[in-house]
Specification:
The protein is mostly beta strands. 0% of the residues lie in helices and 48% in strands.
Amino acid sequence: QVQFVESGGGLVQPGGSLSISCAASGSIFRIFVMGWYRQAPGKQRDLVARITRGGITNYADSVKGRFTISRDNAKNTVYLQMNNLKPEDTAVYYCNAVPSGTSWGQGTQVTVSS
């Protein structure tokens, strides 16, 4: 099973930008849809962005127009560019297939605060 390692999180002020990455241990080409999920403290893990193998994207209403997902199948990497960040974007971000497999990475913490 493909394993995922997320990186690039950090502390950013409201209105700022951050780019996070997800490196897969194997080929993601066979995974038709990849996604970014996030989980805030005390809340369930939600899918916020997804992308097909061919590059078709879809976003949750809460991030539409601010987040951009992309994937590089040759590098087995998925990216999430986050702009105009809000405090409510604070969460641990994970990548996985859509629908998700049973194995999750450690995630990367994104904190939006002044």
